[in-house]
């Protein structure tokens, strides 16, 4: 593989499951059930972005529109499925003068894994990855929508989620349900992402100096629930993800996405939950 390069590119020119939440007496907790997830066979779109990249804000605006359903009619009209989006802020542009407050080396490592899996030589932002199989420049709206329509689709998991706050600094997400797909001996990782919406940042330095940056679906935490192998589609899977929350955590602005991925980070099913306001 050629030496890895970095680039910031530009071009010219959620499907949340139907939920029922209820407080559990004696605990700061709520249960969210989704026996048949809304937006079944959703396509997961990941955006690798940075506040330090001059062309990322346009891609962030595009992913916000995608997440809130602005393109749903167009996608469904072309035979596609609903979309779930996640945004990972990388940290390799921090040296340009503005340290992205949501950037993480963990997300840079994830993007690097896709660069290698998709046989690319250059890490760049903004970059979309659709179902873990196709990548494209983050500002190519029509190409993105076509990639979503053409993406392989899989049954969404049917997890029942319980959210608890054991302490003011932690969030516990317990999941029980069927994956609704058969898993062979190669195995599947069940991943749980905690994201935040409605982030607004006044950027005084760097390539976006003087701009007010708006970010949605920003992944703040990502944990592996478990790895499963040789599993029947209807077999119940249970596990708990533990998150340390950040200062100013507001559950009303946050959600959880559960997705299944193989060792090449290809996606095989996605389910989303909005966090209950009372958590």
TrEMBL record:
Domain of life: Eukaryota
InterPro entries associated with the record: DUF1223, Thioredoxin-like_sf
UniProt xrefs under Pfam families: DUF1223
Protein name (Swiss-Prot/TrEMBL): Thioredoxin-like fold domain-containing protein
Organism expressing this protein natively: Arabis alpina (Alpine rock-cress)
Organism lineage: Eukaryota, Viridiplantae, Streptophyta, Embryophyta, Tracheophyta
């Amino acid at each position: 593989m050629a030496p890895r390069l970095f680039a910031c590119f530009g071009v010219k020119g959620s499907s949340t499951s139907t939920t029922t939440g209820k407080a559990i007496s004696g605990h700061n907790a709520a249960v969210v059930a989704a026996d048949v997830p809304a937006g079944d066979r959703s396509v997961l779109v990941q955006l690798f972005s940075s506040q330090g990249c001059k062309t990322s804000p346009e891609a962030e605006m595009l992913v916000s529109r995608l997440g809130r359903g602005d393109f749903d009619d167009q996608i469904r009209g072309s035979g596609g499925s609903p979309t779930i989006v996640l945004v990972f802020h990388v940290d390799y542009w921090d040296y340009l003068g503005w340290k992205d407050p949501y950037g993480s080396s963990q997300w840079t490592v994830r993007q690097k894994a896709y660069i290698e899996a998709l046989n690319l030589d250059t890490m760049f932002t903004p970059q979309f990855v659709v179902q873990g199989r196709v990548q494209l420049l983050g500002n190519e709206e029509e190409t993105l929508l076509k990639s979503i329509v053409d993406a392989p689709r899989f049954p969404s998991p049917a997890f029942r989620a319980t959210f608890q706050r054991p302490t003011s600094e932690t969030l516990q997400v317990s999941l029980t349900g069927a994956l609704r797909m058969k898993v062979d001996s190669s195995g599947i990782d069940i991943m749980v992402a905690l994201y935040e919406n409605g982030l607004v940042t006044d950027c005084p330095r760097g390539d976006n100096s003087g701009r007010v940056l708006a970010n949605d679906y920003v992944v703040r935490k990502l944990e592996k629930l478990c790895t499963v192998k040789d599993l029947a589609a209807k077999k119940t899977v249970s596990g708990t993800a533990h998150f340390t929350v950040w200062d100013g955590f507001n559950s009303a602005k946050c959600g959880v996405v559960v997705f299944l991925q193989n060792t090449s980070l290809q996606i095989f099913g996605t389910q989303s939950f909005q966090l209950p306001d009372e958590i």
